[in-house]
Structures are given as C-alpha cells and as structure tokens.
C-alpha cells in the first residue's frame, strides 16, 4: 500500500473521525492518525468527547439523577424504595462499558468505510507531509493531497491549584472518583464545572463552586441564567461568584483553597478539588515551522468560514479552531471540509449552533440572547412559557424552568430560543430546525404539536411572542 493519501486526518475525536469517514464515503483514500492508546498499547479512538468528556459525564449524570430521584421523588409517585444506596464502583463500570462500546464502534466504522487508522502522534511538515511518531518512537512520513487537523483541546491548568493526584484533578480525574467526596470544591462555574459538580452533589457531596466572574453563565440568556442559578442553589450547590482562587495547599489529607471575594481573603477546606476553568486548543508539537499553518492571537489554528488554513489543502476543525468547543460543531465542520475537498459547496451555519448544559433541569439555547440583541440595537419581541403550565411536565414531576422565544419585531423571524427545563437538549433541536429554515414565530405557532408533550411549551412560547398563547396568560402589550 502506498504511503500517499488523498486525505490525512490528524485526530480521531468527533471532528476528526467524522471527517475521515465522510472523506472515505466520497471515494477519497483516507487515513486517520491518533496517538491515544490504552494501558495495553491499543489505539483508542473517539478523542476527549467519547473517552473523558461528553459521553462518560452524561453516563454519570444519568446515574446520579436516577439515584436522586429514587431518594427524593419516588415517594410522590407512590413508590416506596426503602434504603437506597449508590455503588460507585458499579456506576463507574457502567460508564466505562458505554465508552468502550462507542470507541469500539468507531473502529468498526473505519473498517466498514475503508479508513486507514494510523497509531501515533502526527506532525504537519512542509509540502503537505505528515510525520507520525508511534509509541515506540519510530517515525514515518506520509504524503497527502489534503490534511485535516482535528487535534482538539485539553483542560486549562491554573498556577494556584496545580493538579495533584488524589486531591486536585481536572475534568478527566473527576470522572473517576472511587468514592463520594464529603466536601468537593469546583473551580469554575462553566458547563463542565456545573455538570461534574451536579454529579457528585446528587451522590451526597457538599459542593462549593468558586467562579471568578461576577456574572453567572455570561454567554447564556440572563433570564435563563438567573433561573439556572436559583435551581442549582436550591439543589444544594453553593455557587460563589466573584471568587478568585489565589492558592492551594494540601494539609492533613485536605485541600486548603485560598480565594478572594468582595469580602476580602477567604479560605475553604475540601476533600477533593476539580479544576474546570475551560479548555485550550491542543497544538503541542503539531506544526513544523515549514508547514505554513498559522495560529491566531489566542493560540487557535487560524481558519476561514470554510475551515481552510493559510495553506491550500490544509484544513482544521473542532476545538482547535475558533468558535464554541462543542463536539457537534466539530462534527459538522468535519463533514463540511470532507465535502469541500470533494468539490461540494457545503457550509456550516454558525448562527444555528445549539449549546447545552446537562444539569437538572437541563439548559439549552440556540441563536441570539436578549442581551446581544439589545447591544446590537435590534427591535425584538419575546414569548415565554413555564413548564409549570405543561401537563406532561407535571406528570413527570419536572415543572422547573421555562422556554423563551425571541423574534424580530419587524419580520417575526426567530432570532433565538432559550430553554431551562426537562429534556431541554432535545427540545432545542426543534428550534434549530425552525431557524435553519428561516422560520417565523408564527410558523411554529401554526404548527401542530402533540398533546400532551413537553414540546408544547415551545409551541406556547412562540404563540406568546404575538400575545396569542392559549394555555398561559399573555403579557399585556405596552401602549
């Protein structure tokens, strides 16, 4: 087999493996380079998302949610569950099995689609060559007509809390606690911090979240963010805003964390600390000076709207480029790049990228927030509907939260949909589809939704934009 490929993809995370599969489907001779291996030296596909990110965290969130339901909610359904206990080891085994099944599934998909899998660390050389160094240090150089960089991201570490095995961990370590910590500190109130904090809080940890910013979830619509803060505090998460961590010390088996807030210098003691202050693009050892590929001022690979780098034939997708670090965004970019290499004119619609936080209730959104539209000087109308008015939510004992729809005042086109509530991650997709087709609020209002269903909350919110809601009182229009 020749060592020249039509496409070489570096990285087998969501953006990379999807790009590789789509390239192969389009008849391109494709290889995918991945350096991650198991303890036994076997190549691991799927990247952060499948192995230590999206998938395992959702498995733990689901287990912890069921445990919390059994403890607190079964009684209201007339179910007497007795003495409910959580077997943490079994919970982790289930999580690991799910990860193993999914990562093994990618290997099968590579085989089915004819993608060549290459183990090792990839480096982009000049002249569209890729150097691969395997685990034993052997180096091989491959030629490519096209290169797709999909190396992903890694957790950001901060000097005040250096990672210390058994005490201070990043998001990966937080997925593998062998027992429930009595007191857990989480540094960072972003998506990862809130999700992992929720898991261990439900299982019995006293969780304190330290967030340096003074606004909770600043990128979310603030009406939704305020409701989220209220719900999470109600669940027992102690979320401290304007709390800047300044140092840490491990003493007598505890982590002493120093931080400053509006009241001055503070200290807190924890059994474990999770550092979840964000992620940075992974470009270490990736680019030779001759490659011609440039980084932007924040360390991301510089690309245009079609994910092209400064070098013709070299592309980059996913967490290593601008935009939200979301698996689905990387996947769609992977498909776009594959199809553009095959001379198709596919384009990602960056105005319709959904965001989700898998707390309980879930938080999800797509499009513009009310704050962004105010800043942009756009005239808009808003419709909201609480889940407390929804029969299906009542039946499920999940009435916290609301759906908010924002539409252009002149054209009625939907500009943003923001949800906190049950199954928000599923409901938001209805809004994404509507916005992809340029839907107006009236279009969705005229659409028939099944009854009873959680989706009716979105229906009522779109009706409420024009003051036509049926099952909730409409807000009086200002004269």
TrEMBL record:
GO term, biological process aspect, one: 2-oxoglutarate metabolic process
Record: residues binding NAD(+): 188-195, 211, 278
The protein's required cofactors: FAD
Pfam family, one: Pyr_redox_2
Domain Pyridine nucleotide-disulphide oxidoreductase dimerisation: residue ranges: 353-461
Disulfide topology: 49-54
Cofactor note: Binds 1 FAD per subunit.
PROSITE patterns listed in its UniProt record: PYRIDINE_REDOX_1
Additional detail: The active site is a redox-active disulfide bond.
Protein name per Swiss-Prot or TrEMBL: Dihydrolipoyl dehydrogenase
Taxonomic lineage: Bacteria, Pseudomonadati, Pseudomonadota, Gammaproteobacteria, Alteromonadales
Gene this protein is translated from: lpdA
